[in-house]
Specification:
The complex is a heterodimer of chains A (163) and B (740).
Chain A: E1 2-8, E2 11-17, H1 23-30, E3 49-52, E4 55-58, E5 71-73, H2 85-92, H3 102-115, H4 121-128, H5 138-162
Parallel strand pairs in A: 1-5
Antiparallel strand pairs in A: 1-2, 3-4, 3-5
Chain B: E1 8-11, E2 17-21, H1 23-30, E3 41-47, E4 50-53, E5 58-62, H2 71-83, E6 90-94, H3 99-102, H4 117-144, E7 151-154, E8 157-160, E9 166-168, H5 169-176, H6 205-210, E10 225-231, E11 238-243, H7 245-249, E12 253-258, E13 276-281, H8 284-293, E14 295-299, H9 308-319, E15 327-329, E16 343-351, E17 363-368, E18 373-377, H10 382-393, E19 400-404, H11 418-429, E20 435-438, H12 441-446, E21 454-462, E22 468-477, E23 500-507, H13 524-542, H14 546-553, E24 559-560, E25 568-569, H15 570-584, E26 594-603, E27 608-619, E28 622-633, H16 640-660, E29 665-666, E30 669-670, E31 688-693, H17 708-723
Parallel strand pairs in B: 5-6, 10-20, 18-19, 22-23, 28-31
Antiparallel strand pairs in B: 1-2, 2-3, 3-4, 4-5, 7-8, 8-9, 10-13, 11-14, 12-13, 15-23, 16-21, 17-18, 17-20, 21-22, 24-25, 26-27, 27-28, 29-30
Classes of the chains: A alpha+beta (163), B alpha+beta (740).
Chain lengths: 163, 740
């Protein structure tokens, strides 16, 4: 066991953990941030996706000792109140069924749009293809990412117009 | 602490209850928004489905399981519709499982499956909403001192017809809940529906997109240990000897507990608890490391140590041995006594074992104590959990408490109580401590229950006048709903008007290589695949268009007795086929390398009908599904947004079986361990889907299991149209085209 200081959702937290433990379990079981989900443990399903310094990564593959000072953002920290454009778009398109995979889907969608605000369908599919949804909500996820892209663009131009 | 402990019930006259609770505090636990400016509210309980607080918040108590099929929102819509509630003020709460309250005809039971929820709950929730509306209206009438008829409810208020006075449900609830309902309530006319029929986003979406929705796997109680089980890798295997000394050396590992005592439970072949050794630890990580360090010698003397291929060849040999008819229409021996000038064609179809692979792996938190056993889990049948725990551990049912959660997918697997039996056993054997048992994804793949393997043989006799004269279907399957023999009379769900139909069935319960359980749409998957593909073969043999042939075979629009409690409606089946063909442009010119296929099948438990036209493009051995046009008759559609989502998701489900399904087994062991070795559909493979619902004034029926069976034969028939190659076994491989 070793003591680690992590930056999680804008806060500094200390955890005592086996250095090999994946970040996923530290988040879920020690920090009680259960929005990040376990799906496969081998980086194949995407349910555990979080941001490390804004990049989407599979937290099931990241030993806690590898994180260092990187800023961790989980679904709970994506926005304060569910107002991130991808969250709003997910609601408007009524995307989820069971919802279990959706936190991971949202984190990758948010990272994609941060990097590429106007992705093509093919770019969205390429980015989202690493996420499994057994309920099969893929068509709505595709729509929602496009919707979020438009929302983000609108917000941006509004801000640019005024300031 | 659970919110229910905050409740202080005060019994009042008339069967209603007024309960007080600290709303703000309890809501925060679930991540719900607190009621503005309201720290204390009086909560009035109208019936087992409905509470209204003094702030006007309407709480719908969900008695069925929400696993992504959307029943929580749809059920709340039905209740809110009759109640005339303000939808914005409706919240959904998961009811604590309660046999007395819910497990009866009057309340529809808690078991969730068979696409039955809407069908069962529609009259019950309408009545519950209407009765409560009547009580609220009477409370207002009394307050105003005017006749009941001069008041009406709308959008969370009762209004006075004489003037513009109105009182909110919140103001009226405490009084209304003490009144006694009188007589049968009047239900709304369809034309007056404000919620039903509108596409409404799921009630829990805010929680889902912010990570605040709690599933069973997210539950945590102080002092709990994590457990994983090293289960026998072969079905029906047993632990011979084990050595836990290395496992107990792993830091964080607390105890090692054999499953002997609960393993081997196989109630009527419905489910199975595998033997194994459980490792308990402070963290899941430590439990997993401890499991790796266990030394176990297995005893496989009662197991089939076979490869899947051996099992398949033995099953085929058995298929060739005649058995008595299970049921028939017309002449039972018609296929043997065909006229000399008739033609007979035959083909075998295989729908193999399938995994459920839902995203939230099985899990259960259990705490067994002297006087009470508490269980936290997402389950499709809390009643089954309570009764099975009670029976197997000799605990009175009153002492088994199940706190229910939504689940990250159920698809039939979560109907069965085995994971709860495991968790309770471990909690008890470890000394009555709280234990959170998790199935890792590897457990989910390799030691799990599966969808049944089905081998089907079809024969059809075509007369000299080119009429389909006789139809024969024989089926061998590793799954039945219970193991009672002789099986009830049943013909597969065939609606076509063919003079002679015979159905032979036998089970493979003793031969199966894995325990089988319900899997979304269950036996309809194999039945629709074989029937609708073989009918396509028959159409080709007859030189007929497969759409025209179907329409002709349903021309009488008869209701057909298939041995199901419900009759199969030829006219409803015909209507969906017609609509799908129209919308898809059946018969339009298709370029080389592309093809269109059609298929239709009812889902009898849910009383719904579905047809699809699939368009595929095939290049080499790669099949791309480009477009699926769906026509569905599921009665009145409560929530079109959810119904479409279900149809679309069901198509992905069926296509996953079509392209990627099956379970590879070698020497009794499931080979594939995780998603890198066995996939299901991903976004880039998703076809374009258009769903059309038949306008219906009928009651709502089930939609969750409607589309998976139909998409498989529709796509297989489209592949034939594109390539001339028949797909008679899943998953698809265009290399394997020889007959079985």
């Amino acid at each position: 066991m070793a003591l680690f200081t992590l930056q999680v959702n804008g806060k500094q937290v200390k955890v005592d953990a086996d250095p090999q433990v994946p970040l996923l379990w530290v988040l879920r079981d020690q920090l009680k941030l259960t929005g990040t989900k376990y799906g496969c443990g081998v980086g194949q399903c995407g349910a555990c996706t979080v941001h490390l310094d804004g990049q989407s990564v599979r937290s099931c593959l990241q030993p806690v000792s590898s994180i260092g000072n990187m800023e961790i953002t989980t679904i709970e920290g994506l926005s304060e109140d569910g107002s991130h454009p991808v969250q709003q778009a997910w609601i408007e398109e009524d995307v989820p069924q069971c919802g279990y995979c959706q936190a991971g889907q949202l984190m990758t969608a948010a990272a994609l749009l941060a990097e590429n605000p106007k992705p093509s369908d093919e770019q969205i599919k390429a980015a989202m293809n690493g996420h499994l949804c057994r309920c099969g909500t893929y068509l709505r996820i595709l729509k929602a990412v496009k919707n979020a892209s438009l929302k983000a663009e609108k917000n941006k131009s509004w801000i640019e117009d005024i300031f | 602490m659970d919110r229910r402990y905050f409740l202080k019930a005060a019994g009042l006259a008339g069967g209603g209850l007024v309960l007080s609770l600290t709303t703000l505090c309890t809501r925060k636990r679930d991540g719900d928004e607190a009621v503005e400016g309201e720290e204390e509210a009086i909560v009035s309980e109208f019936n087992n489905f409905l509470k209204i607080d003094s702030a006007g918040n309407v709480v719908f108590l969900l008695s069925k399981h929400e696993m992504g099929q959307g029943v929580s929102t749809s059920m709340a819509m039905i209740l809110a519709e009759e109640l005339c509630a303000d939808w914005e003020k409706v919240r959904i709460e998961f009811a604590v499982a309660d046999l007395d309250k819910y497990q009866n005809n009057e309340h529809g039971g808690m078991g969730t499956g068979g696409s039955l929820t809407m069908l069962i709950m529609w009259p019950i929730l309408r009545k519950a909403g209407a009765v409560a509306k009547g009580l609220l209206t009477r409370a207002a009438a009394q307050a105003w001192g005017i006749p009941f008829e001069e008041c009406y409810a709308e959008n969370g208020y009762v209004l006075n017809r004489r003037n513009s006075d109105k009182r909110s449900f919140g103001e009226l609830a405490a009084t209304a809940a003490t009144l006694t309902p009188d007589g049968e309530p009047t239900l709304k006319n369809q034309a007056d529906h404000k919620l039903i029929g509108k596409p409404i986003a799921g009630k829990n979406l805010n929680k889902l997109v912010t990570g605040n929705q709690k599933y069973g796997i997210d539950m945590h109680i102080d002092g709990m240990l994590y457990a994983v089980i090293a289960r026998t890798p072969v079905y029906n295997g047993k632990v011979a000897t084990y050595d836990a000394s290395a496992a107990l050396q792993v830091k964080g590992v607390r105890q090692v507990v054999p499953m002997l005592g609960i393993s081997g439970v196989k109630q009527n072949f419905l489910y199975d608890v595998r033997d194994g050794i459980a490792v308990l630890a402070d963290t899941l990580w430590a439990a997993q490391q401890g499991r790796k360090a266990l030394q176990i010698e297995w005893d496989f003397s009662s197991s089939h140590l076979k490869d899947l291929a051996d099992f398949e060849s033995e099953t085929l040999a058995r298929m060739n041995k005649p058995i008595p008819a299970t049921d028939f229409r017309g002449n039972v021996e018609a296929m043997k006594n065909n006229a000399e000038d008739s033609r007979v064609i035959s083909a075998d179809y295989v729908y193999p074992y399938q995994l459920h692979m839902f995203m939230e792996p099985l899990n259960c938190l259990a705490h067994c104590r002297e006087d009470q056993t508490e269980i936290w889990m997402g389950t499709q049948a809390p009643n089954f959990v309570i009764n099975s725990v009670s029976e197997n551990f000799e605990i009175p049912v009153e002492q088994v408490k199940v706190y229910t959660f939504p689940s990250g997918g159920g698809f039939g697997r979560r109907y069965f109580p085995d994971v709860a039996l495991e968790a309770v056993h471990i909690s008890r054997a470890a000394g009555n401590i709280p234990v959170k048992l998790l199935w890792t994804r590897e457990d989910d793949f390799q030691v799990n229950h599966a969808h049944g393997y089905t081998l089907e043989r079809y024969s059809a006799a075509i007369s000299s006048k080119n009429q389909l004269q006789s139809w024969y279907f024989k089926e061998l399957r590793t799954y039945t709903w219970g193991a009672s023999k002789p099986y009830p009379k049943e013909i597969s769900w065939i609606g076509y008007d063919i003079p002679n139909i015979r159905y032979d069935f036998d089970d493979l319960l003793k031969e199966t290589l894995v325990q089988c359980v319900a899997w979304r749409a269950v036996i309809a998957n194999a039945w629709a695949f074989g029937q609708e593909c073989f009918l396509d073969e028959v159409a080709v043999a007859m030189g007929r268009d497969p759409y025209e042939l179907r329409m002709e075979l349903l021309a009488s629009e008869k209701e057909v007795d298939i041995g199901h409690s419900r009759k199969l409606s030829g006219s409803r089946l015909r209507n969906v086929i017609k609509l799908a063909a129209e919308k898809a442009g059946w018969g339009k010119a298709i370029v080389d390398g592309k093809g269109m296929g059609i298929a239709a099948y009812p889902y009898m438990h849910g009383n719904a009908y579905c047809a699809m036209v699939a368009e595929v493009a095939v290049s080499g051995e790669k099949v791309i599904v480009e477009r699926i046009v769906v026509a569905a008759d599921c009665g009145k559609v409560i929530n079109p947004s959810n119904a479409r989502n279900q149809i679309e998701g069901g198509i992905m489900w069926g296509l996953s079986a079509f392209f990627h399904g099956g379970v590879d087994i070698e020497k009794g062991r499931v080979v594939n361990s995780n998603f890198h070795e066995q996939r299901f559909m991903r976004m880039e493979e998703a076809p374009q889907i258009e769903t059309h619902f038949i306008e219906s004034g009928e009651d709502p029926w089930g939609v969750g299991e409607l589309s998976p069976p139909v998409v498989v034969p529709a796509v297989a028939n489209a592949v034939f149209a594109a390539t001339g190659k028949r797909i008679r076994r899943l998953p698809v491989s265009l290399e394997l085209q020889t007959d079985l």
